[in-house]
Amino acid sequence: MLMSNPQESTPSVKDLVKVLYGGERFGNHVDEVWPNLFIGDMSVANDRYSLWKLGITHVVNAAHGRMHCQGSHDFYGSTVEYYGVPADDSPSFDLARYFFPCAEYIQSALDTAGARVFVHCAVGVSRSASLVLAYLMIHHHYTLLEAINKVKEHRAVAQNKAALLKLGITHVLNAAHSKRGSIGNQSFYGHGFVYCGIPADDSTHFDLDVYFQTAADFIHKALKTPDGKVLVHCIMGMSRSSTLVLAYLMIYRHLTLKKALQKLIQKRAIYPNRNFLALLLDLDLQLTRNKKTCQIL
Fold first, then answer.
1. Would you call 121 a catalytic residue per the annotation?
2. What GO CC terms are in its UniProt record (predicted)?
């Protein structure tokens, strides 16, 4: 039996941060990180046809009952086995109490012939990744660092500047500037990117419309730059960021709100909150009035 020095095998927080923020891969909506074990986000989880194409037989929802995550036994029906973990992605939430039950569920599922397990949360980065790391440590006896590196062979678990460069991104618009969970700012991206930060809350009372013109101007100017490519993001890439992109399409591309929505959902699942939709509807009405006034003049 091989023995190791605990001091050598136990990483510090600094070691873990270095590993998590290293690497060059950029996560997809879903990745197979272990044979027949997948990590992904809610855009895939909410799409039963995509799960069917992947051959998924079991779903572990690490954001059970949370906003935008539709997963439940009723949603998936009798063709998919469902396991819900009602976790919050917050520093105070005790996810550890679910490590062993969830690991047992995943292992039991993978022991079933032909099984394929999909573990997801909202973004597919924090809660779901934590449960998969716990599974690899409990059932495959990986150290935490080994488990992180194994998962990172297939999926990114943090924002990655090298990946943005590979994508040709030149401009970054962060719709969650200075908010918890968003690491982006000008010092983070450095001189390699042009950065614009909008400190928006994804709430039912935040007046995001005060930033519509600023965001649209930034995107428009960036796209007029030779080889300019813009990344617009927030925390989940669903509400704040999509709202600003919709506003840009309406202001500079002269699309109605309905047509802008149709164009965007062809490429990505988006979920602007009701407040933001109401603000966009106001913008739609204002732009329509302005257009009619110009026609009269």
1. yes
2. cytoplasm
